Amino acid sequence: MLIAGFPAGAFQTNCYVVAPAAGEECVIVDPGQEASDGVEELLREHRLKPVAVLLTHGHLDHVWSVAPVCGARDIPAWIHPEDRHLLSDPAAGWSDASAQLFGGITLSEPDDVRELADGAVLKLAGLELVVDHTPGHTKGSVSFRLPEDEIMFSGDLLFAGSIGRSDLPGGDYPTILRSLAAKCLPLPDETIVLPGHGPQTTIGRERATNPYLKEATAPHAGPTRGI
Asked: 90 — phi, psi (to 5°)?
């Protein structure tokens, strides 16, 4: 298994390329702000051929470069239908004050957009990725798992020591707790978590130390948290 990544742009959003090995096909996860050059560098370094872009959710910092990356390689983008509108209307994912900062930014959908469903298994680039719908950060948030390798791309659901914020449009704190309880807590402790921001962690480490995973054992309404 080859997984390489880098934090992209001002938001430091983790972008990943995933392949069975160097010199093979790959998928690209969450190409954010100014990610195109970094993606191309990883593809050249590891001699990879991308076949799809996978999006954990529709926030601008995760989808900023999806159209140019897909267009350069003529590949599809996969996103949950609840977040698809954010590909062409990024301001809809932010508060009114934040949206003003992005008012001059125009994005468009890639030519080929395909929709994700909870429990789907994507067979791409010689990989089998399980899709888990994990709303709470946005309505269409998902995580991607490689069960055989015990790896999870958590997007902005789960971070090392924290969780994604739930105070933006489409976010909801009790809902993100339910997603954590349903999709994270049942996983083996050894599962490696590759988040949308910050360093990698494991389910076991977060189960033992993350206060939000502890709270997720009995979800209830509370204050918004996270990044």
From this structure: -60, -30
